[in-house]
Amino acid sequence: MGTLTSNVAKEAPINELVGLLNSFDPKELKRLEADFPDYAQLLKPGITLGEENVLDEKKELEVRTAATIAGLNLILKKANDSLPAIKKKLKRLNNIQFFSQIVIAISGASILIFLQEKYEEPIKIIIGSLTLTAALLSLYVQHRSGTIAMGENSLSKVFNDLTDYKLKAEHFFQELKITKQLEFSASKEHVLGIIQQSNSISMEIKKIIEKN
Amino acid sequence: MRNIYLKFLIFFIFSFHILSGQSFQRMAIPKGTFSLAPRGVSKVTSYCLDLTREAPTLGINFANILSGGANAIVSITNAAGNVSNIPLKQAIDQDLIKIEGADLFDHTQLKFVNNTSDAIEIKLSENLQLGSETEKSAVKGVEKLELSSNPDEQYVIQEKVWNLREEENIKQLEMLGFKEETNSVNNSIWYPEPNLYQQFQEKFDLEIPEENIGVLDEITENKIVEEINKLQDQLTHIGFGGGLENAIEAYKKHKGIETEGYFNSNLYSLLKKDIDEGKFYGTNGKAHKTVHLEMPNGKERFFELETGFYVRFRNGSRLEEINKILENRFYLQEEIEVISLVNDATTTEVLRRNFPNNHMEFNLNSMQDFWQKLKKNKRKSVFILGHIENDAFITPLNNGKKFSLPLKNLQRLMKELDINIFPLGCNSGQYTTGMGNKFNSIDALNQLKPAVENNSTFKGMLQDLAGEDLKVIIDDNLLEDRGYLVAKIARQRTQASIATISGIGAGAGLIIYFNNKKGDSDKDDKTSETSDQNK
């Protein structure tokens, strides 16, 4: 076993990809297990707590690549499903924001007028409540969409991240398919790098999907 | 003249014996002091130690010291009367003296030859054992033989020496399963047919010169020693130690086979079966199964108590004690904590699901973090799940660095925080109580959950954790009774507090109720008084 062989397990982990497939596309994972019966342990969710012995470098790389391609495919599918929904949410929040700002404006004008006249208590309360509600709604929308503070859970951040991961996944997916067709004649280090990054993306995508 | 010529002719004719590889007898010279004149020759009484071998012949170099030469001194007195003392071996190496065969194939004497022009005295403080140039093995116990330099006593003493030697040899062969009815050593049957040595040589198909068939030559003797050592090792391997004779007797007694001093083929078959089955017999005769597991530093032997549940072999004498200790180590579930040092989302999910109230996820950056969290949580028995490499838990971090927790630090942690730590990592049992193989993180968590929930002793828990895919190794550093009492007391206190509060609450409720009731009845009384007054 040369240096590259012993690095395959360390530099091209696929545990998160396998985890993602296990959660959202177990059939695909079963198919991979059927295609590579000698690598059942590698295609099992979780990680093997121990040094992984790589006996056949080429085969090992083939299995990891196949799992990565399957995982990236799933990521693209999930991203394509989730992005429109998130976009819709953002749009809805945007509309609520717009409506609440109109109400604030009207309420503001109404208050000035009504202050001049004597009106009954309930009407004053209604106008005040409307103004407050509109203001609160506006705050909520801004927080949720992330325009006030771009927190971890803000929709804008999620949308941006998901878009970014989708682009990367597309890029890695195409590269791996080409590399596989060329039977890994390209730089193996490059392939290991793609697998590693795909694994990281997988973890992030899973978090996003589960929260949204 | 004719006599000398005849001796020379016989020597010449039989010289092919020397070239053909015939083994020569090892010889013993009695302790004493021997004087040699300048350029002189002195014959000394000698004793043969190997009955079946060829006696040394005239002129053959016999200066190969096999034993007894450590304190042998040669004193050389020169013409001026100055005396210098040198070790015998040095004198031989410097060719100051020689030791040779004295006569044609004569075992009764050897000769010292002084090659110097000075007087020499050879002082032997113990019996000296000599061999031919190619001899490598020494006969044991020569220093204890009672030998005499008096040639008149040579014959009688020689017989005793031969008897003793052959008895020892035959005893060894008996231990190896060779027994002949006619092998008693006496004057008339020193060469029983078929010869035991020959039987041994044939059984092991030894490649020896034809003239050495039936002779206890060096090859045969070495093979006997090898087989004796092998038998001893085999018996020790299954628990019958001590000297070989005692081991053989103990094994025969254990198997209920009575054969005097004889390890027959039946016993050999039983021994082979025991070895093949990995048996080890404790001091009380109880049989235990042992297996060899592949560990990072090579194959190691363990007692297998159950599938996947092992005790390190070196703890064999404490096996029963260890079993009992673990059976009496109780725990409460609230004292158990499972810490995952595995940076894997699916593993974390399973960890949360299986141990919702007593787990710690991996979100650490340093050893200090880890220490602080352990201290804060105050659990008493901790399972640490993680990948082990080079004797440390290693977790790759997202920033490219690695979190490392050396296994040796666990001992320190255990002492300082007064907690039990079970390292649930690959081959963590290499040096301590832990695991004996590689395994999947999720399998471990899924196996650990029912093991913790369905047991109350550590033995039960670890037995349930162990299996085909999870090998648990027990070593002499067992899990201490740290948490059980504390957790039990804490639980009792909690129960007592709840009972007290409930009791106070109930009591207060009753007081209020009765007070209210009394108040109502007073009110009723007042109302009826008022209405009476109004009437």
List the helices and strands and how they pair.
The complex is a heterodimer of chains A (212) and B (535).
Chain A: H1 3-11, H2 15-24, H3 26-35, E1 48-49, H4 57-116, H5 121-145, H6 155-181, H7 188-211
Chain B: H1 2-13, H2 16-19, E1 27-29, E2 32-36, E3 41-45, E4 47-48, E5 64-67, E6 73-77, E7 83-87, H3 88-93, E8 97-101, E9 109-114, E10 119-124, E11 128-131, H4 154-175, H5 196-203, H6 218-237, H7 244-255, H8 265-276, E12 279-281, E13 287-295, E14 298-306, E15 309-312, H9 319-327, E16 336-340, H10 345-354, E17 359-360, H11 367-377, E18 381-386, E19 388-389, E20 392-396, E21 402-406, H12 407-417, E22 420-425, E23 434-435, E24 439-440, H13 441-453, H14 458-465, E25 472-474, H15 483-534
Parallel strand pairs in B: 15-25, 16-17, 16-18, 18-22
Antiparallel strand pairs in B: 1-4, 1-11, 2-10, 3-9, 5-11, 6-7, 6-10, 8-9, 12-13, 13-14, 14-15, 19-20, 20-21, 23-25
Helix pairs in contact in B: 6-7, 10-13, 13-14
Report on this model:
The complex is a heterodimer of chains A (about 210) and B (about 525). With about 210 residues, chain A is mostly helical. Chain A is built from 7 helices and 1 strand; from the N terminus they run αααβαααα. Chain A has helices at about 5-10, 15-25, 25-35, 55-115, 120-145, 155-180, 190-210; one strand at about 50. In chain A, helix 4 (about 55-115) packs antiparallel against helix 6 (about 155-180). The two termini of chain A are about 45 Å apart. Residues about 1-5 of chain A have low confidence and may be disordered. Chain B has 15 helices and 25 strands. In chain B, about 40% of the residues lie in helices and about 20% in strands. Chain B starts with a helix and ends with a helix. In chain B, a hairpin with a 2-residue loop joins strand 14 (about 300-305) and strand 15 (about 310). Chain B has helices at about 1-15, 15-20, 90-95, 155-175, 195-205, 220-235, 245-255, 265-275, 320-325, 345-355, 365-375, 405-415, 440-455, 460-465, 485-535; strands at about 25-30, 30-35, 40-45, 45-50, 65, 75, 85, 95-100, 110-115, 120-125, 130, 280, 285-295, 300-305, 310, 335-340, 360, 380-385, 390, 390-395, 400-405, 420-425, 435, 440, 470-475. Chain B has a 6-stranded mixed beta sheet. In chain B, helix 10 (about 345-355) runs parallel beside helix 13. The longest helix of chain B has about 50 residues, at about 485-535. Classes of the chains: A mainly alpha (about 210), B alpha+beta (about 525). The interface between A and B is medium-sized, with 19 and 24 residues. Strand 1 (about 50) of chain A pairs antiparallel with strand 24 (about 440) of chain B, so a sheet runs across the interface.
